[in-house]
Design brief:
It holds the Pfam family BRCT. Among the domains are: 9-52; 89-168, Sandwich (Immunoglobulin-like), CATH 2.60.40.10; 179-290, BRCT domain (Rossmann fold, 3-Layer(aba) Sandwich). It has 9 helices and 20 strands. It has helices at residues 57-79, 188-200, 225-233, 240-247, 256-264, 295-298, 347-351, 360-366, 444-451; strands at residues 9-17, 21-26, 31-35, 48-52, 89-93, 98-101, 112-119, 122-126, 135-138, 146-155, 158-161, 165-168, 179-182, 204-206, 215-217, 252-253, 340-341, 368-370, 376-378, 384-385. The strands form 6 sheets. Strands 7, 8, 10, 11 and 12 form a 5-stranded antiparallel sheet that branches. A 4-stranded antiparallel sheet has the order 3-2-1-4, with no helix packed on it. A hairpin with a 4-residue loop joins strand 5 and strand 6. Helix 2 (188-200) packs parallel to helix 5 (256-264). The protein is flat, with a radius of gyration of 55 Å.
Amino acid sequence: MPSKTSPDSFTFTVGKLDAGMAILLGERAHLIEFPSILLPPGATTGSIVNIAVHQNHAEEKRREADFWELQDNILGEFGKAIPAVPDLQVRNVTQTSITLEWPTVQLATAKLRSLDIYRNGQRLAAIPSPMTNTSTKLSGLEINTEYSFQLILRTTAGVFPSNLIRVRTHTMTDTSGICVCFGNVQDPALLEDAKLALREMKARWSDKIQIDTTHFVCTTPAATPTGAQAAGNSGGSPGIEYQRALQLSIPVVQPHWILACHSEKKMIPIASYYLGATPNTPLGSAGMSNRPQSMSQASLSHPPTTPQPPNKQTTPSYRASMPAPARQATATPPNQASAFVNQPTSARQLESTTEEPGDEADADRLKLERTASGEWKRKSRSGTMNREFKFPPTPSSPPVMPEVPAKKGPPAPLTENGLAAESLVTPSSIEVPPPPPVEKERSFSNISLESGEDDVGDTVDIPLN
């Protein structure tokens, strides 16, 4: 402890003392709380201690230097490095699509919120996997139309828009946007001619499918020439790039399509140049035969067309979605009115047929056919609905009419049937009286109450013995 004569030393008397805190009393009735652990060893209640306080300037400077060094590190790590602005570039342009690319997104110490593509100032879509994806392909555009595109990067450090680019889609005569991926072309000369044509059209090609690949060109789906021979015989497996082209819906065409575009100096429809079609065929004939058919068409087996003799009905071997042919009305023999015609008859009825037709016309009218023995039998055909069927007419006998009281006056004129005109009663002129009202059945309780009011007579006692 400092000496008593030191000006920076203060004298205190230890008052209350416990394990954690001590009460110190000063000379001028100052009372302070002081930690017991800082008291000299052996100090108890009533001990007199001197306390001196000094400022440590060297330690203050050291701690201040440490503080500002930490602030500089924070500023250099989080304050100076900011996310990089995306640099949007055009990779490829076709008649209906545009492929854009940009460098990998640099966020520094910020966190990504979204990366969106804008077309003509309107948000089009969000870029999937923005931290690894560096390109996108926009399809479904109009031919020979100008568009503007921009990327908007949103982070926790702010919003960073990319540069605005303007691009116009190609016309049909501009073939520089073609980018093909070559598969297995069995003819080397044909392959070289196709590459030479692409070079003159300022188009591009590669051996791998990329994001801007527009067509997959091959003559067989197999990966190697050996596989192509196997594919023709036992069905060799298709190549990986061919399978990717099918998954990405990239058209698979033959090299003849490239030669046709080069010769015509414009984009040629690919319908007649699909893999498996005969090249240089008009659209809609052989070229369309390679397109997949629906299940209903594929399962429909059309028989070969053969000439049929005149006046002879033929039934096709397949069912078609066509309306039923109109049937000619046939006269129903008298006393045989039925809702169905051509009903099969029993053998007894056929044998009992004794009517002999005069000629073939009568046989056709009577629906008869001649057997091997020369007898006429009724034709047996499946029952069909007679569309001309009508219910039999009402009998010619006059109906029984209710008696009508005769009116006084001159006699009424007679009708064609011999009846008086006023005696004919139409159904609308007959007045039908309403049914009599039906009383509701009285309940048992009502009967019992009402029966109590009736006179039941004298009561007689009957002995039990």
